[in-house]
Protein: Putative transcriptional regulator
Amino acid sequence: MTQTDGTPHARPKAASMADVARHAGVSSQTVSRVANGLSNVDTSTRERVLASMRAVGYRPNGAARALKYGRFHTVGVIMFTLETLGNVRTLDAIATEAAAADYSVTLMPVPDPTMGAVTGAYRRLSEQAVDGIIIIFEASLLDRVEITLPPGLPVVVIDSNAGSGFTVVDTDQALGARLATQHLLDLGHRQVWHIAGPRSSFSAGHRADSWRATLERAGIRPPELQHGDWSTDSGYRIGLELGKRPEVTAIFAANDQMALGAMRALHELGRDIPGDVSVVGFDDMDEARAFWPPLTSVRQNFREVGRVAMERLLEQIADPDQTAETTLIPTELIVRDSSGPAPA
Structure:
């Protein structure tokens, strides 16, 4: 850096811990305790030290603190996509919970759902000095049934098919699909058609399996499964096919976007909702109550999934010998005007 006359201009000297101590009127040891987040400093002194840090422009050396205490106060998140409502809300909850615990989050997207991609992301995060990793699976791995990762870091998986040895947090997909299907049966519908998500999706598979099992328990042979891709366009396309069949009186869609597409198709075909056809979605997105008619949907608590996942990871970071366990976050059926009694 040079001045206008070409002579070198010295960089401002970074504020030191001693500068903070002089400004706050405390010892350097007290400043060190505050900088390292230790609890043996009274509240008024801590506030004074923090104010002095801001006043003199002091920034604690996170890397040095990590080397000293063996913690980096950073967690990694591996995920395949940010395009789905659930993933965005879950990631938001992880970040909020991490911030409350004085942790930062490093996001590592992977290009395709393969074990090699996940392992590569895991190793890159390990090199970036994180204390633990959360893996969010939207799709099943194409080349492996169970997750296999190098040992060393605490891991929490948001999914219910991670295999043994991992702490898992997930929405109770089976409960939600059962509630949706049984609700339509209880309304007198003799059959329930299902618009499922992609074949590659774990959550779509869980919902479809539970839909099928609920019908079979009622002595009903499930109809052919209709696969969409989570989009309103795919729901619309399938809705046009199903809506032309007079025997179709109840549709359960695996997410609200596909339900919306199906409802548009039914409107265009002149079939009344719910007089002719009842429609139930899954997710209970914020806009579901604004559909016409307002959509009956299964509510997933994505924020609770993210919060609990971060909580479990912090527990593992504090105690690496904890036993792996699975936590399912309950789902809830929200009944609105899109579902009603079966036609006479």
